[in-house]
Automatic annotation (TrEMBL):
This is tRNA (cytidine/uridine-2'-O-)-methyltransferase TrmJ. InterPro entries: Alpha/beta_knot_MTases, RNA_MeTrfase_TrmJ/LasT, SpoU_MeTrfase, tRNA_m1G_MTases_N. Its EC number is 2.1.1.200. It catalyses: uridine(32) in tRNA + S-adenosyl-L-methionine = 2'-O-methyluridine(32) in tRNA + S-adenosyl-L-homocysteine + H(+); cytidine(32) in tRNA + S-adenosyl-L-methionine = 2'-O-methylcytidine(32) in tRNA + S-adenosyl-L-homocysteine + H(+). The gene is trmJ. It comes from the Bacteria. Homodimer. The lineage of its organism: Bacteria, Pseudomonadati, Pseudomonadota, Betaproteobacteria, Burkholderiales. It is found in: Cytoplasm. It holds the Pfam family SpoU_methylase. Belongs to the class IV-like SAM-binding methyltransferase superfamily. RNA methyltransferase TrmH family. Catalyzes the formation of 2'O-methylated cytidine (Cm32) or 2'O-methylated uridine (Um32) at position 32 in tRNA. Keywords: Cytoplasm, Methyltransferase, S-adenosyl-L-methionine, Transferase, tRNA processing.
């Protein structure tokens, strides 16, 4: 939580909402010291939500090295949420960005931290967002990257681009803080994505959550296989390319339902061979 003395200002109240609706996810962190230092990096920038996916050291929140490196941010460390998979970490999230150490040919769109922070600011208006960081040695798997909406890449010194995990968290947290504090509510509203008509009982333009999007891709893939448009033995990165296409669009719940409706009808038309994946 960001402790600003302008707490009565409604614009600041909304910005605080951005600080609390943003979670930082560390996937399989190896070193307790980095987890503690990441907690410190968050707290110095006004953030507090740290999620750890399958940390290599059990009970890392109470590890002496982690507590020492947290250096006063032990409240953030102690409240870190530990989950078994990235899918669990992204539960309830409608937009996420993965930090990648190298530029990738495939996967979601890639941004500098500053550009990513600007998009994150607009997305935070719609609900929960997440920043995802990989393991110190191996980074993020392709599967983890494709689960995210976009990629950020820190343009480090090419002769020595080895950026410590907690330092990378600090760079992204700083850029987010700067953007959150510089954008007033009017700017955020002006830049928010246009909203489509809603389904019954939900707000206009309600964003699809990560698990809903994953179910959509599973359903769509089954339909494309049933159509024989996608050959499972020779997929040619078709699903990766489709993920990239949909990631650019900022999927809303109604749009996910439309795609799933199309997939369902393809499976019904192609008969029992395809089956219904709904």
């Amino acid at each position: 939580m960001d402790h600003s003395h302008h707490s009565s200002d409604p614009a600041v109240a909304e910005l605080r909402g951005g600080f609390t609706s943003t979670r930082f996810v560390l996937v399989e962190p190896s070193h307790p010291g980095n987890v503690g230092a990441a907690a410190r990096a968050l707290k110095t920038m006004g953030f507090s939500r740290l999620v750890l996916v399958s940390p290599r050291v059990p009970h890392v929140q109470t590890d002496p090295e982690a507590i020492a490196m947290a250096s006063g941010a032990d409240d953030v460390l102690a409240c870190a949420h530990v989950v078994p998979t990235l899918a669990d970490a992204l539960s309830g999230v409608h937009w996420s960005i993965a930090l990648t150490a190298r530029l990738r040919e495939y996967g979601p769109p890639q941004w500098t931290p500053r550009a990513a922070a600007g998009i994150a600011r607009d997305q935070a208006v719609h609900g929960e967002i997440a920043l995802v960081f990989g393991n110190e040695r191996t980074g993020l798997s392709n599967e983890d990257v494709e689960r995210c909406s976009a990629l950020a890449h820190i343009p480090a010194n090419p002769a020595y681009s080895s950026l410590n995990l907690a330092q990378a968290v600090q760079v992204l947290a700083y850029e987010l803080r700067t953007t959150y504090l510089s954008a007033d509510s009017a700017t955020a509203t002006a830049h928010a994505a246009p909203r489509a008509a809603a389904g019954p009982g939900e707000p206009a333009g309600a964003r699809a959550a990560s698990d809903e999007i994953e179910s959509m891709f599973t359903h769509l893939e089954s339909a494309l296989v049933a159509l024989e448009f996608l050959d499972p033995a020779n997929p040619k990165k078709l699903m990766s390319r489709l993920r990239r296409l949909f990631a650019r669009s900022g999927l809303e719940r109604e749009e996910v339902n439309i795609v799933r409706g199309i997939a369902k009808h393809i499976l019904l038309k192609t008969g029992p061979r395809g089956g219904d994946a709904s």
